[in-house]
Amino acid sequence: MASVTSLSDSVHQRLAAALSAALPQAGSADPLLRRSDRADFQANGILALAKKEKANPRELATQVVSRVESGELLQDVEVSGPGFLNITITDRAITENLAARYADDTGRLGVPTAEHPGVTVVDYAQPNVAKEMHVGHLRSAVIGDSVTRLLEFTGESVVRRHHIGDWGTQFGMLIQYLDEHPHELDHESAEVSGEEAMSNLDRLYKAARKVFDSDEEFKTRARRRVVDLQAGDPQTLAMWQKFVDESKIYFFSVFEKLDMEVRDPDIVGESGYNDMLAETCRLLEESGVAVRSEGALCVFFDDVKGPDGKPVPLIVQKSDGGYGYAATDLSAIRDRVFNLKANTLLYVVDARQSLHFRMVFETARRAGWLNEDVHAVQLAFGTVLGKDGKPFKTREGETVRLVDLLDEAIDRASAVVREKAQDLSEEEIAERGAQVGIGAVKYADLSTSANRDYKFDLDQMVSLNGDTSVYLQYAYARIRSILRKAGETRPAAHPELELHAAERALGLHVDSFGATVAEAAAEYAPHKMTAYLYQLASLYTTFYDKCPVLKAESPEQVENRLFLCDVTARTLHQGMALLGIRTPERL
Predict the structure, then answer these.
(1) Can you say how many angstroms the Cα of residue 80 is from the centroid of all Cα atoms in its chain?
(2) Are 220 and 172 in contact, with CB atoms under 8 Å apart?
(3) What is the SS3 assignment for 90?
(4) Which of 94, 116, 295, 299 can bridge 314 by disulfide, Cβ–Cβ 3.0-4.6 Å?
């Protein structure tokens, strides 16, 4: 299926041609279209162009109107104010464009892919081995998953990377304790659930920590284990692998509850770059990017200083020979650039790590690993807050477990679905409750600009009113219900029909879906997609209130309005899928 040119692009092309004809000396001119309350579109670039060319803006606008080829696209182009152009699209053009999108059996609604797609590595959903996932892990997973879906929809080749915390000194303690208490994890991983797996690890960690803090001889043995682990001792590595495998069972269970696919080959944690660390340090030191300072290998920056005014370096290798996070992150950049051939490295990481990543990216740039053709971006996200506007905690002041939060969302949503359900079985209510509850959590996160904090308010999230995923899901289910009630009457486009104002507004908004996808993907901004979908559902509600569908005035109008319903439903379904949210057929 060929892509469909949007109405805004078609208008833009005609106005640009007319502008060039009116002012040949200006070359190709941009009319700068925007949506307007007074017309379908408004061109407001003429004022700036007239000023540049020292022309009268209203006279220039009048000349442009006289040169515009309207055809079957433009119903009216009029000069407004000091030199704006108000543009009205014909009803036929709106219906025909939607019909072309409707005919796309790929599900893409005629949305084109990027002309020059690249390779983007998205680093997101980064839990820690042997530790429970908490509310702080939510945003990286949800935002990263949606951005990945948006990029892939535009044609970008996306490589997922889950940089889990699977290395460090705590593993020496855990491995030594398990070696001395071999039956603590004596079971087949496949036989336990994710919750049980993490319960086992949590219990093991607490027991190991108790011995580590009270037994100096054990502490010494545990520290030797760290050395063995870093040196690649086979027995120690085998024990370490048990912790990783046990944790993955848990990770997969949480991500499954989040309705996210996390594949094992995409999990490349800190340990995955061990073999590269020494070479990374050597390359940085030999190139002069990093220097030795008090025994440590450091990179200094003119604009990064401590409270005392002294430079604060990025420490790549510690004075005792150990490697820090910077060495691992820089090695990961080398792998992603030179082995995965990425053009863009996108890190969906907490805003509190912004300084670290700024220093890492600048170091990689100085080393030549990042340049004009290959760049790295941190998609920094804010904090999840409670209703009181403070970091989300339990009543006891502890960090909220992610599974507890998700379970509560599902319970709340199931109650809403049960209250509204008319012909759903208990099994269906449970299934829809999970889809609505998880959708509510994701949408609340994604509808806020990533760099802002947001309040976690389940009462608002599962509300049927306002900017929530539940509102969108019920709008979709309502449309599907209407299409079922239509029986043998099928949706069909009738371009010859005059459209109601509510039909026009809905049709024009549906047509702008592709532009919204492109913008949201280019800016890594899922919140722009949520804003689009909320407006789509709102416009559909207005259409539904003002334009009878099954009781329209003629059979042709019934078919045309069913067609508008169906293309809206398809757009809602695809848009929500790009957010990672389900759209149940019945609610």
Answers:
(1) 40
(2) no
(3) coil
(4) 299
Helix/strand/coil percent split, the chain, to 5: 55, 10, 30
Q: What is the pLDDT of residue 189?
A: 47
- DSSP helix/strand/coil, 376: strand
From first CA to last CA, the distance across the chain in angstroms is: 32
Interatomic CA distance for residues 70 and 504, integer angstroms: 18
Place of tokens 């797996």: 197
User: Could you tell me if 316 and 331 are in contact, meaning their C-beta atoms sit under 8 angstroms apart?
Assistant: no
- Are the C-beta atoms of residues 92 and 42 closer than 8 Å to each other? no
Contacts of 24 (CB under 8 A, 6+ apart): none
Note the pLDDT of residue 34. 86
Q: Which residue has the tokens 């820090």?
A: 324
What CA–CA distance (Å, rounded) separates 126 from 136?
10
Q: Which residue has the tokens 């890190």?
A: 347
Tokens, residue 84:
């704006």
Distance CA(443)–CA(576), nearest Å, equals: 9
pLDDT value for 27? 63
pTM for this one?
Answer: 0.94
pLDDT confidence of residue 241: 93
Q: Identify any residues that bridge with 315 across adjacent strands, giving them in sequence order.
A: 298
- All residue ranges of the chain with pLDDT < 50 are 189
The first and second tokens of residue 404, run together, are 């507890």
What pLDDT is stored for residue 159 in this prediction? Answer: 98
Residue labelled with tokens 């941009």: 30
Among candidate residues 132, 119, 192, 130, the one with its CA nearest the CA of residue 161? 119
What is the C-alpha to C-alpha distance for residues 252 and 248, in angstroms, rounded to an integer?
6
Strands (DSSP E) along 396-521, which ranges?
A: 454-455
Q: Tokens standing for 503?
A: 């039909």
- Distance (Å, rounded) from C-alpha 422 to C-alpha 419? 9
Q: What six digits make up the tokens of 100?
A: 């072309």
The SS3 assignment for 358 reads helix
Report yes or no: 305 and 356 within 8 Å, Cβ to Cβ.
no
Please report, for residues 333, 334, 522, the alpha-carbon distance to residue 341 in angstroms, rounded to integers and kept in the order given. Answer: 11, 10, 20
Consecutive H or E run containing 235: helix 234-257
Q: Half-sphere exposure of 315 toward its Cβ, with a 13 Å CA cutoff?
A: 13
pLDDT of residue 1: 58
Sequence-ordered list of residues with C-beta below 8 angstroms from that of 193, at least 6 positions apart, any chain: 249, 253
Strands (E), 408-559: 454-455
* Helices 57-67 and 46-53: angle between axes, nearest 10 degrees: 120
Distance from C-alpha of 121 to C-alpha of 98, rounded to nearest angstrom:
34
